[in-house]
Write a structure and sequence with these properties.
215 residues, alpha/beta, 20% strand
Length: 215
């Protein structure tokens, strides 16, 4: 099976689903990561590739759309870029950012992913999840539409160290604690999410769709 993770910006994929990426890759799934916004900065692109190689990602895809400018692009342009990736990979499982995140790029990406994975025309996608991103998911104005309410958890007790190591590959992005984009914050969130379901460490998600064909 194929897993496709959409990241509005480089490192979102690690923060939101790094443990899941490692877990799926170790289980034999083909995992792909699509970095949606501009990665023409060669240092950042190499950091992304290093992180992806460490996690076992099969292919890194760079759409090179402009960061912080997605809201100024036509929905048609964003939809086209993301739909092309979905049609090329034909994944069964898709991860995307939480639509209520503070950064507008996250919302734009998620809305376009939802267009691309509509269950029509023999779409391959069976399961769709939204992930939380430290520094974006928790900083928005709290209300019912902007509060991340997980309904799915993945045990990443065996994967937490590699998740943090992958984030540390982003030397231009990782910060010192108490910044949320720090190794300590990543571990703390995983501990908290794990403690709510009886795991030492976990990642949590909001399942948007899960198609069951047989019982």
């Amino acid at each position: 099976m194929k897993v496709l993770v959409f990241a509005p910006h480089n490192d979102d994929e690690v923060l939101g689903a790094g443990g899941a990426i490692v877990k799926y890759a170790n289980a034999g799934y083909s995992v792909y990561v699509c970095e949606v916004t501009d990665c023409r900065n060669e240092i950042l692109r190499q950091e992304a590739k290093n992180a992806h190689d460490l996690m076992g990602v099969k292919e890194s895809i760079f759409c090179n759309l402009p960061p912080v400018e997605l809201k100024n692009l036509s929905p048609k342009e964003i939809n086209k870029s993301i739909t092309q990736v979905v049609e090329k990979i034909k994944p069964e499982i898709v991860f995307m950012p939480f639509i209520g995140d503070m950064h507008i790029d996250h919302k734009e990406v998620t809305e376009s992913v939802l267009v691309a994975v509509r269950p029509v025309n023999n779409c391959s996608v069976i399961t769709v999840y939204m992930y939380e991103t430290l520094s974006e998911t928790g900083w928005n104005i709290p209300n019912s539409e902007r509060t991340f309410s997980p309904n799915t958890w993945i045990d990443i007790t065996e994967e937490i160290d590699k998740k943090i190591e992958a984030m540390e590959c982003y030397k231009t992005q990782i910060k010192q604690y108490p910044n949320p984009r720090s190794s300590e914050s990543i571990r703390a969130l995983a501990m908290y999410r794990g403690s709510t379901v009886g795991f030492k460490y976990a990642e949590s998600f909001m399942m948007i769709r899960n198609i069951i064909e047989e019982v």
